[in-house]
C-alpha cells in the first residue's frame, strides 16, 4: 500500500483524487494538503439499508418470514457491530 500511495502522491499536482479510508488510517503523511471529510452512517441509515436488503433478497426474506424475530436480530446485531462505519 505504501508504494501505491507514494505513486499517487507524485501525481497529486496533476490530478484530483478521492480516497476513502477507515478512521484509524491517516493519509496526511502522504498528502499533507488533503481536505479531510469524516462521514459516518447513523443507526437509521444502516437499519434502512439492511431492511431493504432483507426484503429484496428472496433467500433472506424467506428466512425472516419463517422466523419472525430473525430480521430484528440481524438488524440489531449488524448495527451494534458497525459502530457508525
Describe the structure.
The chain has 85 residues and is mainly alpha-helical. It has two domains: 1-39, no CATH class; 43-82. Helices cover 54% and strands 0% of the residues. It has helices at 2-11, 43-56, 58-66, 70-82. Helix 2 (43-56) packs across helix 3 (58-66) and helix 2 (43-56) packs across helix 4 (70-82).
Nutshell version of this structure?
Helices cover 54% and strands 0% of the residues. With 85 residues, it is an all-alpha fold.
DSSP strand content: under 5%
Which runs of at least 5 residues are low in confidence (pLDDT < 50)?
A: none
Q: Tally of extended strands?
A: 0
Characterize the largest beta sheet: strand count, sense, and whether it forms a barrel: none
Strand and helix order: HHHH
Specify the structural class. mainly alpha
Average pLDDT taken over every residue: 85
Shape from CA axes? elongated
Residues in helix, %: 40-55%
Query: What is the terminal-to-terminal distance?
Result: 21 Å
Query: Helix count?
Result: 4
Features:
single chain; 85 residues; mainly alpha; 2 domains; 4 helices; 54% helix; 0% strand
List the helices and strands and how they pair.
Blueprint: H1 2-11, H2 43-56, H3 58-66, H4 70-82
Helix pairs in contact: 2-3, 2-4
